[in-house]
């Protein structure tokens, strides 16, 4: 077991709320369709002048304040995102610029909705290897800027936000009990942004064809998400020698309530122990898990000794799970 602690958590959410009723006026959809298919009622949308690093910096600032750590004293910043500020430099470096801090390493992890758990895995391995004592781990997205607002099959699903944690040396028996992660690049075209990178650089045509937005095979994603999230969670539980009854709080990636519920059922964790924010925020990709962790902590659900099980799935495809003693 790796002895570490979530020293502080934080989140940042745009003020603007976009409800299902608002979406009814934008595309041919209904509150009823969105609610029954996804469990989402509303999501937050960033202002035009707000980028991923703005939300990430605000979430990290709150996490540092709650941890009693100055952002400048962190040994490194690892940020999971698919909606980077720029192709280069990394959004983590823009976060440094926003906060006026420098020196510590800073980089992004591109693992879609698994981005925060990938970042946590890397940070914990660096800690175990003695490469630093306090890391800022962030999941942040402005999905609204890469969504095709005329495609009802995708635009109703996503929202914007950022969540962050400061992890550092633990006291007692808190820490990461076990983890599991993986990827399958053969399924990359099931969920991707086709243009804007080196495969298809931006041209007038790519813009006209909406190739800079989310392209997704929804049913395919659904099936693989449930299988991979459940399997990763069960592997982490097995490695940590935990049963479903041992889990106090289950936080799956908050893509939609049907994926979350199907995943939960396969893990055997009782329904009342699954924590969800998906109805209020939609799918914020890498940001969903750290925001849910922050809100579960604020709600008093995560106390010293609590067992937290997290599991995620995203573009790639990627997946990851952690069994954590809080
Ligand atoms: N409003 C009304 N009707 C819609 C909408 C909408 N917003 N979107 C699609 N439909 C229609 C379709 O056009 C289709 O109509 P048709 O039968 O006349 O062709 C019908 O609803 C059914 O469409 P399906 O895509 O088969 O609907 P499904 O029940 O599979 O639900 C959904 C779609 C919600 C996208 C589902 O496939 C899903 O949840 N997939 C996972 C996607 C996801 O969460 N991706 C996030 C990124 S990955 C991740 O975070 C894990």
3D structure, described in words:
By secondary structure, the chain is of the alpha/beta class. It folds into 2 domains: 2-171, Peroxisomal Thiolase, Chain A, domain 1 (3-Layer(aba) Sandwich); 176-325, Thiolase/Chalcone synthase (Peroxisomal Thiolase, Chain A, domain 1). It is built from 11 helices and 13 strands. Strands 1-7-6-4-5 form a 5-stranded mixed beta sheet, with helices on both faces. A 4-stranded mixed beta sheet has the order 8-13-12-11, sandwiched between helices. It has a two-stranded antiparallel ribbon with strand order 2-3. Strand 4, helix 4 (91-99) and strand 5 form a beta-alpha-beta unit. The radius of gyration is 18 Å and the shape is globular. The mean pLDDT is 97. Acetyl coenzyme *A binds at residues 29, 33-34, 37-38, 113, 152-153, 156-157, 191, 216, 218-219, 221-222, 225, 253, 255-256, 283, 313-314.
């Amino acid at each position: 077991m790796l002895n570490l602690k979530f020293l502080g958590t934080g989140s940042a959410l745009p003020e603007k709320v976009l409800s299902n009723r608002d979406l009814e006026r934008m595309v041919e959809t209904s509150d009823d369709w969105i609610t029954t298919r996804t469990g989402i009622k509303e999501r937050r949308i960033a202002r035009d002048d707000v980028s991923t690093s703005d939300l990430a910096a605000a979430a990290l600032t709150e996490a540092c304040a709650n941890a009693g750590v100055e952002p400048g004293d962190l040994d490194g910043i690892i940020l999971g995102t698919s909606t980077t500020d720029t192709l280069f430099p990394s959004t983590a470096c823009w976060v440094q610029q926003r906060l006026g801090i420098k020196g510590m390493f800073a980089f992004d992890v591109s693992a879609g909705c698994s981005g925060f758990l990938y970042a946590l895995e890397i940070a914990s391995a660096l800690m175990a290897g003695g490469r630093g004592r306090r890391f800022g781990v962030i999941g942040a997205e402005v999905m609204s800027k890469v969504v095709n607002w005329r495609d009802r099959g995708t635009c109703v699903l996503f929202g914007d936000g950022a969540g962050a944690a400061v992890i550092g040396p633990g006291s007692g028996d808190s820490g990461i009990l076990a983890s599991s992660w993986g990827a399958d690049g053969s399924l990359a075209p099931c969920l991707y942004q086709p243009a804007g990178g080196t495969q298809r650089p931006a041209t007038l045509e790519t813009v006209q064809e909406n190739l800079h937005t989310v392209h997704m095979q929804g049913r395919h994603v659904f099936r693989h998400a449930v299988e991979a999230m459940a399997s990763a969670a069960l592997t982490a539980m097995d490695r940590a020698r935990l049963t479903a009854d041992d889990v106090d709080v289950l936080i799956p990636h908050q893509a939609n309530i049907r994926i979350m519920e199907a995943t939960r059922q396969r893990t055997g964790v009782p329904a009342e122990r699954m924590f969800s924010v998906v109805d209020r925020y939609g799918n914020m990709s890498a940001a969903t898990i750290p925001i849910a962790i922050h809100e579960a902590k604020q709600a008093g659900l995560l106390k010293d000794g609590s067992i937290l099980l997290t599991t995620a799935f995203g573009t790639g495809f990627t997946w990851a799970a952690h069994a954590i003693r809080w």
